[in-house]
Automatic annotation (TrEMBL):
Coiled-coil intervals, chain numbering: none
Protein name stated in the entry: Runt domain-containing protein
Source organism (scientific name): Bracon brevicornis
Location(s) in or outside the cell: Nucleus
Record bears the keyword Transcription regulation: yes
Length: 37
């Protein structure tokens, strides 16, 4: 997963934030479903 993130960084910098957020939400779990939105 880390590799994919690195590749995405070079491809689309704005998309990185979305991917990082999605991963963070998954790591945090259903703890903060509001963050998903």
């Amino acid at each position: 997963k880390s590799f994919t993130l690195t590749i995405t960084v070079s491809t689309s910098p704005p998309q990185v934030a979305t991917y990082t957020k999605a991963i963070k939400v998954t790591v945090d779990g259903p703890r903060e479903p509001r963050s998903k939105t």
